[in-house]
Design a protein that fits this description.
alpha/beta; 7 helices; five-stranded parallel beta sheet; single chain; 171 residues
Length: 171
């Protein structure tokens, strides 16, 4: 979580060896239909003082519209392409599996976006299917706020700080 707080406060002058703000800018797209979970994630980001953008969509079709830049999502200043997606699998209109397959499809322009599945399902068939479709990680959703906060701390520490990030192609 410290990565987000530090990265969001850097100025271009603070960057070393020609590094730009773009490398420190880390928008996250949360694809989740459960309002309680959305509240908990937003609260975890706020408590951790994460200032980078957290965009939220509530179903799989809306996630695809967001990634394609359709409709209101055409404004990439307001709705930047995510450098990380955190997504549930059981959602209305299109499931997380369908979104995952759409994003990771062969030669798809957005296939490099890391996608972490966070689901209440611990079914081996769901876990296996997510990885087969190209998920970068699968985590079973905890039931209480402290555990959610810890889970998102783990996700942001690993994906935000530890991992080298791919360049993303635009849609």
């Amino acid at each position: 979580m410290a990565f987000f707080a530090c990265a969001s406060r850097l100025s271009v002058d603070d960057c070393e060896s020609g590094e730009t703000m773009e490398k420190n800018y880390f928008p996250v797209l949360l694809v989740e239909d459960d309002l309680n979970d959305i509240f908990l994630v937003k609260r975890a980001f706020k408590i951790a003082q994460i200032e980078n953008p957290l965009q939220v969509v509530t179903d799989g079709q809306e996630a695809i519209n967001y990634l394609k830049g359709d409709g209101k999502y055409a404004d990439r200043e307001a709705y930047p392409l995510p450098k990380l997606m955190v997504m549930d699998i059981k959602m209305p209109r299109r499931t997380g599996f369908e979104v995952l397959e759409w994003v990771k499809k062969k030669d798809g322009p957005l296939k490099r976006i890391p996608i972490v599945i966070v689901s209440s399902s611990d079914s081996p068939s769901d876990i296996n299917r997510a990885y087969e479709l190209g998920a970068n990680a699968y985590m079973v959703k905890p039931m209480d706020f402290r555990a959610v906060e810890h889970l998102f701390n783990t996700i942001t520490q690993y994906w935000g700080l530890e991992c080298a990030k791919p360049e993303l192609e635009t849609a």
